[in-house]
Amino acid sequence: MEPPAQPSPPPAEPPVGLSTNPQVTPARPAVPTVLADRNARAAEEGHARRREQAAAWHAMRRDDPALTRTEGARRLAISTRTLRRAITENPPAEES
């Protein structure tokens, strides 16, 4: 006589927190939203404004090398932080 057949072990459970059915990430819309368009426009306008502010600072600085950033910012009617950012983004053009 043959011994009775052993039942097969139950399938192994995946570790806690892991899924056997991975989720598919949803596709992002290819068309930019109105808000993204507005943000892009505002960024371009801000960069152009800071470019003008930096050019004015560099011109004032050429005329008066002792000019401080605080005084330059006051003359341009901007904050010293804005002036610092403008100068950092737009270094002076090399004169030839």
Notes on the protein architecture:
The chain has 96 residues and is mainly α. It is 50% helix and 0% strand. The protein has three helices and no strands. Helix 1 crosses helix 3. The longest helix is centred in the middle third of the chain and has 30 residues. It is rod-shaped. The N and C termini lie far apart (105 Å).
Q: Structural class, from secondary structure content?
A: mainly alpha
What global shape is seen?
A: rod-shaped
Q: Low-confidence stretches at least 5 residues in length (pLDDT < 50)?
A: none
% residues in beta strands: under 5%
Give the overall average pLDDT: 84
Helix content: 40-55%
Computed CA radius of gyration, to the nearest angstrom: 32 Å
Secondary structure tally, helices: 3
Mind summarizing the main beta sheet? none
Run of helices and strands: HHH
Distance between the termini: 105 Å
**DSSP, total strands:** 0
Task: Output the keywords.
mainly alpha, 96 residues, single chain, 3 helices, 50% helix
In summary, what is this structure?
This protein has 96 residues and is mostly helical. It contains 3 helices and no strands. The radius of gyration is 32 Å and the shape is rod-shaped.
